[in-house]
Amino acid sequence: MTLAPNVYDAEPIPEEARAEIDRLLASGDLFRYTAPEDAPVALLEAEFAEALGVKYALAVSSCSAALFLALKALGLPRDSRVLIPAFTFAAVPSAVVHAECVPILVEVGENYRIDMADFEAKLGPHIRAVIVSHMRGHTSDMDAIMELCDRRGVPVIEDAAHSLGTLWHGRKIGTIGKIGAFSFQSYKMLNAGEGGVLVSDDADVIARAVIMSGAYEHNWKKHKAPRGDNSDELARAFARWQNRLPLYNTRMSNLSAAVVRPQIPELARRVRAGLANHDHVAARLNESPWMAVPAPLPPETRAPDSIQFNLLGMSDDEVRAFVAAAAARGVGVQVFGLSKDNARAFWNWEFLPEGPGDLPRTRAMLMRACDVRLPVRLTRPELDVMADALLSAAREVMGEAGALAGPGSAGRAR
Given this model, what pLDDT does residue 90 score? Predict the structure, then answer.
């Protein structure tokens, strides 16, 4: 039997990072505010903002920290209601709680995207902000979301942790809402082990976020304005908030920035490879009557580094048997709702200040939604080994005869 590939190792850090890392280690210059200007973190922020086509970027310790700072930068009062999708990572409602707000969960459909009927119904006058988690890189209907939120004056924060490189009508995800948040955790397109970044075109939002991230005294002066921008808009915003905001010290270190910076030019290649890998495996899995990969929404161009698919016509015991059969073939499958204590299953978020409600659509989806890593470095033969293992596992559990009369292929990727 051909061994399945290791899907847990990331791509090597580019050689270009090594000289800067060695310099930093030799000097001990790891704090972003030591240098008078052009520290690695400041350069990363400028380069990332330029790559996304936004005015401002703030590099911080994690995407969770970026979401927390985004909420604090909006100046929301204590106990503000923040609408979030019920399918997201536990760090998202945690950031809301940390910001002294209350998460209100909205249903998510079997295509992993926000249920717009439930979203509109819950977007009442008590909602002060919305976080849209493009979970696992699946983009919700941003046209409808922005139209509804703009009409009500509700700011939108995009949790784009899984969506760096994804496009919506050709526009970069994370730049559509008022604030975007990205992750540099090891399994993301840009890998610093940990880390994140907040982006915005709003000078007041970014000034508040910078100060609260830990730019004490006048260290905010070391943050760069957009290239070619000779206005003093950002400086005026910093001056307005000097000494008026608490410091949460969520800064990124120069060492992390040195690791990320040389990966930015690699992003376009990684996005192309990730999409090709995903679509190849999706086409293979959709050959099975027992698996369906949801199609992208028409305006969406994805940038995946994993694949999600729904199991069709299986009981809970058959789902567990499928996971075991895939593991025996060397492919790890996580079923969000059946994995014990899974941090993406909303019923495990016992820290929520208010009960989430039943959310039957999301619950049903999570009980059959599978997650498999597909690093962009995998080759076509390696992808086929993984697809063969998943198809074989489904046949083992459900039987060849049953496959001839399977439940069909509605909702598959095309």
Answer: 98
User: Rounded to whole angstroms, how far apart are CA atoms 67 and 196?
Assistant: 9
Count CA within 13 A, CB hemisphere, residue 252.
37
**Sheet-wide strand order for 179-183:** 56-60, 196-200, 179-183, 156-159, 127-133, 81-85, 102-106
- CATH at residue 276: 3.90.1150.10
Query: 200-209 pLDDT, tens per residue?
Result: 999 999 999 9
| Confidence (pLDDT) at 410 | 41
The reply to whether 394 and 287 lie within a common domain is: yes
Higher pLDDT, 310 or 224: 310
Q: Which residues pair with 196 in a beta bridge?
A: 60, 183
* Tally of helices (H runs) and strands (E runs) in the chain: 14, 14
Q: Which of 229, 248, 263 is the last residue of a domain?
A: 263
Q: Which of 269, 387, 345, 402 is nearest to 87 (CA)?
A: 345
**104 bridge partner residues:** 83
Question: Residue 230 class from Cβ within 10 Å (0-12 exposed, 13-18 middle, 19+ buried)?
Answer: exposed
The first and second tokens of residue 11, run together, are: 């791509």
Work out how many domains the chain is built from and give that number.
2
User: The tokens of 338 are what?
Assistant: 């059946």
In a domain, 112, yes or no: yes
SS3 of residue 80 by DSSP: coil
Tell me if 61 is assigned to some domain. Answer: yes
Global pTM reads 0.94
pLDDT for the residue 401: 47
Q: What is the DSSP string of 323-365?
A: HHHHHHTT---EETTTSTT-TTSGGG-TT-SS-----HHHHHH
210 lies in the same domain as 343: no
Same domain, yes or no: 58 and 177 = yes
Which amino acid is located at 110 in the chain? E
pLDDT higher at 158 or 230? 158
Q: pLDDT-based confidence at 412, cuts 50/70/90?
A: low
Pull the structure tokens for residue 237: 């915003």
Domain holding 340, by residue range, is: 266-404
Helix axes 203-214, 233-241, angle to 10 degrees: 50
Specify whether the CB–CB gap between 89 and 343 falls below 8 A: yes
> Is the confidence at residue 407, as pLDDT, over 60?
no
Nearest to 260 by CA among 43, 66, 53, 58: 43
The amino acid at residue 250 is: T
Residue 273: what residue type? A
